[in-house]
Amino acid sequence: MTDDDTTANDTTANEATANEATAGGATPQDTPQDTPKDTEGDRELVARLVFGSLAAQTVRAAVRLRVMELIGDKERSAAEVAADAGARAQPMTRLLRALASLGLLREHTAGSFSVTPAGAPLDSRRPDSLTSLVRMFTEPMMLRAWEHLDDSVRTGDVAFDAIFGKDFFGHLKEFPDLSAEFNAAMSEAVRATAAVLPHAFDFGRFGSVTDVGGGDGTLLSAVLREHPTLTGVIYDTEEGLSRAPATLERQGLTARCSPVAGDFFRSVPAGADVYLMKSIVHDWSDEQAVTILAHCRAVMPPAGRVLIVEPVLPEIVDAGTAGLTYLTDLNMMVNVGGRERTRADFEDLCRRAGLSLASVTPLPRAEPYFLIEATAA
Questions:
Q1: pLDDT confidence of 23, banded at 50, 70, 90?
Q2: Sequence-ordered alpha helix ranges (H) in 28-102
Q3: 82-98 pLDDT, tens per residue?
Q4: Quick check: 221 and 190 in contact, CB under 8 A?
Q5: Angle CA(66)–CA(69)–CA(73) in degrees, nearest 5?
Q6: Could you tell me where the Low complexity compositional bias lies (predicted)?
Q7: Is 66 left (phi over 0), alpha (psi -120 to 50) or beta?
Q8: At what angle do helices 191-200 and 176-189 cross, to 10 degrees?
């Protein structure tokens, strides 16, 4: 190879690099010469993340059209599903194929589909259904604040409040259908915890439990069923308690558990040995969280307990095990003003509320949740 050949080849390579950079919206001088070329896997990861919102809306459409219910446990054609859904066959085929590409359906022969195990919870008839969770977390109201995530990062303000002129829960109160959907979504979200919490703590040592912010009573009902000597109180707002009487009736617990309406920023009911909170503390700022915990501390007996069920962030991100927790942290930021916390954060909240952190234990099969146990300081 001659010097002229080398020069010619270098020139060709440089032109190719410049063309590639320009195609991506950059000019040659904008592209650092010492930066390694992105691998295909890296670029695919970025593209997959960017298109994530499209995947979420695909799942939302499947739920709204009742796709999984219409297919059921059989193999059905797209034309049959479309007819039952009141939709056109060709667009339905495209939707079903997109769902198959996401792993929620399987296409057996051209235009014929069945539901995969991953897609099964999108059937509202199932006891493990996640349809309310899908509807709520793809609801335009929930997503509006995410459009202003950068504003919340810059200012520290809650984007939702600025957009709607009131806080998230105040807004829900004005829309009964949305409030009911939110309560149903929270009930679906708590089921995994309800399956393991009754065995993760020795509730049998105590006589009574108050579930602060307990919603429809799914979690406390599970605890009471496993510990027949316990009595309980579900404490929440009127809106939050709307489904609690039906839950207690269905579980045969009306004689052992009572719904009590109130505001945990003002007080919590006295008389319980254990005060339980699942996914409550992360909804609020540090000051508000301390207020709730301090109200529990004020009425708990000397040997009582405060149990907090929340994700616990590590001090340093482990991308391999982080899951969705850091995204829920951002959701807290833009929609309600709360945050996910580390163990040190929980220790600080408890100390400020007159409590002492006794233990932090991961809940198996209910990741990413931990059981945080606190005693009187």
A1: very low
A2: 40-50, 52-64, 67-71, 78-85, 89-101
A3: 999 999 999 999 999 99
A4: no
A5: 150
A6: 8-27
A7: left
A8: 50
Q: Which residues are catalytically annotated? A: 282
Element (H, E) at 194: helix 191-200
**DSSP state at residue 276:** E
Residue 48 structure tokens: 């997959």
Angle at 231 between CA 227 and CA 232, to 5 degrees: 110
* AA letter at 207: G
Cβ atoms of residues 76 and 89 within 8 Å? no
Give the Cα-Cα-Cα angle 323, 324, 327 (nearest 5 degrees). Answer: 140
Rounded-to-integer distance, Cα 262 and Cα 279, Å: 18
pLDDT tens sequence across 263-312: 999 999 999 999 999 999 999 999 999 999 999 999 999 999 999 999 99
How far, in Å, are 264, 267, 281, 287, 349 from residue 291 at the CA level? 8, 9, 10, 6, 9
Beta bridge partners of 307: 276, 373
pLDDT of residue 16: 39
Enumerate residues 6+ apart whose C-beta is below 8 A from 112: 75, 76, 77, 78
Q: Tokens 């995204």 appear where?
A: 327
Closest CA to 313 of 289, 333, 339, 290: 339
- Residues sharing a CB contact under 8 Å with residue 329, sequence separation 6 or more, in sequence order: 313, 339, 340
Closest to 374 in 3D by CA, of 196, 191, 212: 212
Q: Taking the C-alpha atoms of 126, 127, 131 and 137 in order, what is their torsion angle to the nearest 10 degrees?
A: -160
Residue 20, pLDDT > 80, answer no
Task: Name the amino acid, one letter, at 29.
Answer: Q
Apex CA 119: angle with CA 137 and CA 102, to 5°? 80
> Would you tell me how many other CB atoms lie within 10 Å of the CB of residue 58?
17
Letter for the amino acid at 33? Q
Find the length of the chain.
377
Q: Which distant-in-sequence residues (6+ apart) come within 8 Å of 61 by Cβ?
A: 95
Tokens 């996914």, residue located: 279
Torsion of CA 355, 360, 362, 366, to 10 degrees: 0
For the sheet containing 76-77, what is the strand order? 76-77, 112-115, 105-107
Q: Would you say the C-alpha torsion 252, 253, 255, 260 has a positive or negative sign? A: negative
* Residues forming beta bridges with residue 115, ordered by sequence position: 105
